[in-house]
Structures are given as C-alpha cells and as structure tokens.
Amino acid sequence: MTDLNDPSMRAVEPAASGQSSAAPPPPIPVASGVPLGAPLQWLAAGWRDFVDTRFRGAFYGLVFALMGAAIATIYETRWQMTMGLTAGFFLLGPFVCAGLYELSRQNERGERLDLLGSLTCWKRNVGAIGFFAAILTFLMIVWARVSVVLFALASTTEFPTMKSMIAQIVSPTNIEFVLLWTAVGFVFASLVFAISVVSVPLMLDRRTDTMMSIFSSARALATNPGPVYLWALLIVAIIGVSLVFWYWLLIVTAPLIGHATWHAYRALIR
C-alpha cells in the first residue's frame, strides 16, 4: 500500500499533475530611453569593434561591395534582371549583417573571435531570421513595383539610361512627381526601418521570434523617435555616399554600420 505521507511521493505529485512541466514564457524586451546624440556614440563603438575584431568585418563589407557591383553591372547590361538581383540583395542582407552582429557579440563577451563561426551564426534562430528576410523582401518587391509605375508615368521614353532618366524626372517640370515619389518612398522606408531597427540582433542574441522582434523594434522607435530617426539619417548618408561615389567604400562603411547597429540594439533594448 502506498504511503501518501511519504515525502518522496509528495515531491513528485506536482510534476505528475503537469503543474511545473510548462516552461515560463520568455520576457518581453523593453525599450530603453537614450539621448539624442546616442547614434554618434554607436558609430564610435562600431568603429572600435571593427578595429578590435582586427577588421574581420571587412569580409562582410566586401560581400556588400560585390553585390553592389553586380547590381550596377546587371543594370548596364541586362536591366530586366535588376529587380530579381536586388530582391536577392535584400533577402541575403539580414543573414550577412548577422555575421557582423555576431562578431560584435563575441568581442563584447570576450570570446575568441571566430569569423567562420559568424558565417553560420544565423542557424541559432534560422526560422525567425529567415521569416524576417522574407518580410523585407516582400516589402521591397512591393516598393519596386510601385516605384516602376511612378517612374513609367514620369518618363517620356521607353527605357532611358540612368543619367537621362534622373535628369528628366528631377527637372522642374516634374516637381509633382518628385514630391509624390519621395513621399511614397518615405512611407515604405519608414515602415521597413521601424520593424528592423534592432530585430536581427535581438533574434540572434536572445533567440526571440520574428513578431516579438518586430514589435520590440517598433517600440524602440516609438520610445526614442529623435535618436532613432537620426540613426536612420546617418545610415542613409554613410551608405548612400558609398553607393553614389564609390561602392568599394562599402568594405569599410558596411561593417561600420553593422557593428554600430549591435551597439544600438544594446542601448535601445534593456
């Protein structure tokens, strides 16, 4: 006969009833307040990471530079493939940037710097990061379609060259188009930036799911609109200058932004 007063039997009763079998849900990331000048500190910290990791991030910068060169070459020779190649650029972007975040993570924790390990760090949360990349790609394709329609409406030739198209579209006679295209582009860019401020670092570091990471990024933006929009302007300025003047600058500027984004995540999310 079983003795119900036996302590050993009482110890297993909660487990048998299933009361302690369920793991507690992960804590919801909380946004932190940061000063307006914080993005400059993130850039400085990103540069320190770039140096401290002995410029391993330049490998990822080279990947971005080669992708930019490929897009430019395809546009000049087979422009019909440009949209597909650009979609691939956006699809691979989160995976490529994850390696930079991993290098900063290793450096922050004092771990051995492992470039090869950073190449596959996304495997720790491949489902969430892959789903997020698909979301970004979908948004990019929608914007590309809208942009093509707007450009087609403003252009008077079947397929102008890049220089002639820009000169034609930004002429004073097309000021309405410039304003409309800028407004629509700002809406798409704001949406993408709002959901991606700290999403990938959060998924990589804490293994959160895609939607939780997106909501956390949006909350970080809502809590710190000034610093986060300043950060967006800095990203556009640094990467934009690289793309416009000499895309090989991405070998340095892309890892700088990637490492700095890790520090933005650490500052914006408690």
Brief account:
This protein has 270 residues and is mainly alpha-helical. It is built from 12 helices and no strands.
Descriptive notes:
- By secondary structure, the protein is mostly helical.
- Helix 4 packs antiparallel against helix 6.
- The longest helix is centred in the middle third of the chain and has 29 residues, at 126-154.
- The chain is built from twelve helices and no strands.
- The protein has one domain (34-268).
Which key terms come to mind for this protein?
single chain, 270 residues, mainly alpha, 74% helix, 0% strand, globular
Number of helices: 12
Let me know the number of strands. 0
Q: Helix/strand/pairing class, anyone?
A: mainly alpha
Give the averaged pLDDT, no decimals: 80
Report on the biggest sheet: none
Secondary-structure element string: HHHHHHHHHHHH
> What is the 3D shape?
globular
Distance between the termini: 54 Å
Low-confidence stretches: 6-21
Helices and strands in order, then pairings?
Layout: H1 7-17, H2 38-52, H3 58-77, H4 82-109, H5 115-119, H6 126-154, H7 162-169, H8 175-196, H9 199-206, H10 210-223, H11 225-245, H12 250-268
Helix pairs in contact: 2-12, 3-4, 3-12, 4-6, 4-9, 4-12, 6-8, 9-10, 10-11, 11-12
